[in-house]
Amino acid sequence: MGASVPQQCLRAGLLDEIQIHLMPVLFGSGVRLFDRLGANHVELDLIKVVDAPGVTHLRYRVIKG
């Protein structure tokens, strides 16, 4: 899906949680997930980490101010 839609949802305050599946694979250039958020400061609370071979699953709660 890329970073554009999640960035728009973060800016609009529409997300309660974020799940990230982190894999150490380099595909080339791309858009960083937490760039282009403007003046919005995103604060996350780590809920769960699952470390598996080749991937780390991260789950965060978005803290709304």
Which structural traits does this protein have?
65 residues, mainly beta, three-stranded antiparallel β-sheet, 1 helix, 38% strand
Give a description of the structure.
- 14% of the residues lie in helices and 38% in strands.
- Strand 2 and strand 3 (55-63) form a beta hairpin.
- A three-stranded antiparallel β-sheet has the order 1-3-2, with no helix packed on it.
- The protein is mainly beta and 65 residues long.
Distance between the termini: 27 Å
Task: Please indicate the percent range of residues in DSSP E strands (runs of 2 or more).
Answer: 35-45%
Radius of gyration: 13 Å
Give the neighbour order of strands across the main sheet.
1-3-2
Low-confidence stretches: none
This entry's quaternary arrangement is single chain
Class from helix and strand fractions? mainly beta
Q: Report the sheet with the most strands, covering strand number, pairing sense and barrel closure.
A: 3 strands, antiparallel
Number of strands: 3
Order of helices and strands: HEEE
What is the count of distinct domains? 1
Question: How are the SSEs ordered, and which strands pair?
Answer:
Elements: H1 4-12, E1 17-22, E2 43-52, E3 55-63
Antiparallel strand pairs: 1-3, 2-3
In summary, what is this structure?
With about 60 residues, the protein is mainly beta.
